[in-house]
Amino acid sequence: MHLPDAGPENPYQRDLANALEDAGVSTTLIDPDGPGLFAALRAARGNDADVVHLHWLHAFYYGDNLAETAVKSVAFALEVLLLRLLGFSLIWTAHNVVPHDVDWPTYHRVYRRLFVSFAADSVLVHCPRSEDILIETYGLAECHREKFHVVPHGNYIGDYANDISHEEARETLSLDDETTFLFFGNLRPYKGVEGLVDAFERLNAPNTHLIVAGNPASERYGRHLEEVVGNCDDVTLVAEFIPDDDLQTYFNAADAAVFPFRDVLTSGSVVSSLSFGCPPIVPDIGCNDYLVGENAGIVYDPDEPLEDVLTDACNADLVSMREDAMLRAESLNWGPIGERVADIYECVTAR
In its keyword annotation, does this UniProt entry include Transferase (predicted)? Predict the structure, then answer.
């Protein structure tokens, strides 16, 4: 049983559930509208589950204000205690260190440290570096390392339409022969879009174009990005929700996708980029290096000026890199991932 269900806009849980079903594990996704109090306990008992697999943990203990957070935090702690007393196994996939753009990051670290230390049977991470980051950031004792299991993030091949060519996509977006960089994803402050636009404006390379496409976190932030882009030459801002069927147009049109995150553990946007065969350009933080590998994109030192990174990308063989990006995505096959998670379930339920 997996919860909270992130909904149809995020294919990760459904791909994992399908892979688990193929591995012989009956899987249910719970509560697309938010977990509510004691949702995990109610769902576990109502679905005859053995394993409660949690994903975005803050949905259970974090509220819109201090009072709501206090109530949810106490309720979830009690809920976890009851789940353990009733014999359910608890698994958590750590998609991030703390939620993005939230108040009280220290509180999140402390709450998660307590959850890992006293509640979780296993913690799934998407790369070896994540394990080290979480143990250090949460201040976990080394004895808890045995709870961690590295399970790669699977690809999104087949989750989105992908039936137009590079040339057709560029024609749709009225692009000529310029080297085109793309930023795609929900537009939020931690993703570094402002720095990307600034770096692109300083880029010492002719015949280049930047597209920034995605749904802004708020109308105010969308207006802010419009001001940032302003009259920037060769920068296109598409600050709106992009339907799933249109992802192929942007990723297939781009020569490379740039994700200058300031803080990230695992990025679904990078996985999406690889799954369209679009080489990602990412800082060497979190799981980026593990995801991209050697030749499927460019992984740069976060201290390196971004305009220098983009200049190097203009001089790189981005055509062959597209082929390597697709090969890397294909290697992130959900079949072995489902079998790996099924083995972890078997181990925790046998204890």
Answer: yes
